[in-house]
Amino acid sequence: MRYWIKYSLILLLMSTKPVAGDAQQTYPLTLDDLFRLGTENSLHLKASRMQEVIAGDEEKTARTARLPDISIGATAGYIGQTTIFRQGLSKPTHPDMPDWSHNYNVEVTQPLYQGGKIRGTIRRATLQKQVASLYTANDQADIKLSLLRQYMDLFALYKETEVLARNIEESRRRLEDIRRLWKEGIVTRNDEIRSELQLTNDDLALREAKDNITIVSQQLDIVLGLDETLLLLPDTTLLSAGVTLGSCEAYIQQAYTHFPGLQIARYNTRLAENDIRISRADYLPSLAIHAGNTLSRPLTSTMDDMFANNWNVALSLSYSLSSLYRNKHKMHEARQYVSLRRNAEEQMMQEIRVNVRSAYIRHQEAIDRVKALKLSVRQANENYRIVNNRYLNQLSILTDLLDASSVRLEAELQLTTAQSEAVYTYYQLMHACGNL
């Protein structure tokens, strides 16, 4: 009696509470749309693009160092009374002189040569801008791979609901056959109860899978900038798309060319080499041309209250002798940074070889697993057919039939997981090669 009460409550709960997401609006989502919406709405990528814009502005600022330095100025002030001592500090006199002074000037300084420091600074800013764009590309690839993981989980959940729905339909037909056999007195009431319990468990598993679809869809909706109530429908043709796998060494060579992390390491090496050029510029002289015009009163020579205008053009050459002993250690530091960056570049190449080979092996493993599980599904279906016929002919017990059904269900679910994993491992390989 307690069992029947519990079983009735479960059936009542499932019949009165609608399955989550049944009435929700669906949205077909292809893989291209996933990547496009994900990169357009990612807050992390927006921050990376801001850094890229900042680096571009820094490059433009560095280029302005080639332009002349122009300044204008104006000075107005009160001139105090001058005292002149005609004999030592005696016989003071106070000559007549104007009380106010004015000075207006324009100065232009154009750098001509600074030992390559300006050119090196501009080159550094250009390299930093390229590094910023590579960081954006690297972040974009990471986001795509993260989105793909959720997308394939969603795909696997939909396939799971299909398998469970088909299994539930088969369980219902089996339950009808068992009830017919029970009425004919061929099987016991216990067989009917166990079949009903199996059907209840399958219904609950289907409910859980549908709830998981709703949860994963909401997570993707928020990231992609969509209405979070939409149920996303993944592209069902994704698994059927044929992919020709090349050699592992070919993928490693692609990674050496395209992987953003390695390109960033190479640019960092070039930045360190450029810093050597900038440090070396301190050993060289600086040359600049200077021009100015000044309008002032009173006259500085006679202190007459009149305006005087004068202009000048000069060539300025300077050399810092202190750089001969101050720049020595700075140059050594810059060379050590170059060696350090080259070491980091070599480490990155080793890491790429390991990651690409691992991703290549994992993808081959995933393909082989799909092939093996397809055979397992065919064998599980054949096993279920045989045991089902034996049970209907009273040559086996219900436990054998339920075990065969569970084995078939497990094999189909494993195949679904393996198929989605094969797609994911392929894109992992593309990510490791820098092609995502």
UniProtKB/TrEMBL annotation:
Positions in coiled-coil regions: 363-390
Main location: membrane
Localization per record: Cell outer membrane
Alphabetical list of Pfam families matching this protein: OEP
Domain of life from the UniProt record: Bacteria
Listed SUPFAM superfamilies: Outer membrane efflux proteins (OEP)
Presence of keyword Transferase: no
Keyword terms of this UniProt record: Cell outer membrane, Coiled coil, Membrane, Signal, Transmembrane, Transmembrane beta strand, Transport
Keyword Phosphoprotein included in the entry's annotation: no
InterPro entries: OMP_efflux, TolC-like
Signal sequence range: 1-20
Family: Belongs to the outer membrane factor (OMF) (TC 1.B.17) family.
Record's protein name: TolC family protein
Organism for this UniProt entry: Parabacteroides hominis
